[in-house]
Write a sequence for this structure.
């Protein structure tokens, strides 16, 4: 009887250790762990199109450009996205005149952003410091207007 009880207790301990799902919350948490989200950039969409994150969560985004043209990923709320879009329009909407390979996109805007050429993959880590709706947008000519946006609920 003692042996059977010992076996049951040992099995319960092993199952509890193996069955732990700590850190697997799909919405992530503010525990300091970095979650990785793979994002496909196509002509003219991000996949996934919507994302939930926790305040304080750090997310490593892996942007893969599966499209035929250059895309960007600009982080910001709706007002920041619109301001960036206006900034790009004032510049004629032409990224082609700039050396995007040597100049970080962050130099053009105060928003956290990257540019990804067709067939390339770029990683970027972003920490969501406050609650509220956020977006990732592409402001290459015509992309924002076509709806190339990812909605993020923080």
């Amino acid at each position: 009887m003692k042996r059977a009880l010992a076996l049951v207790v040992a099995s319960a301990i092993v199952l509890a250790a193996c069955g732990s799902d700590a850190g697997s919350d799909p919405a992530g948490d503010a525990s300091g762990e970095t979650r990785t989200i793979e994002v496909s950039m196509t002509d003219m969409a991000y996949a996934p199109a919507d994302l939930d994150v926790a305040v304080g969560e750090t997310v490593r985004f892996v942007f893969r450009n599966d499209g035929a043209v250059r895309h960007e990923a600009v982080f910001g709320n709706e007002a920041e996205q619109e301001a960036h879009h206006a900034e790009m329009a004032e510049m004629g909407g032409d990224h082609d005149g700039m050396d995007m390979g040597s100049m970080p996109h962050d130099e053009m805007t105060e928003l956290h952003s990257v540019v990804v050429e067709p067939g390339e993959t770029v990683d970027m880590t972003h920490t969501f410091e406050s609650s509220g709706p956020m977006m990732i947008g592409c402001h290459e000519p015509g992309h924002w207007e076509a709806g190339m946006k990812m909605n993020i609920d923080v």
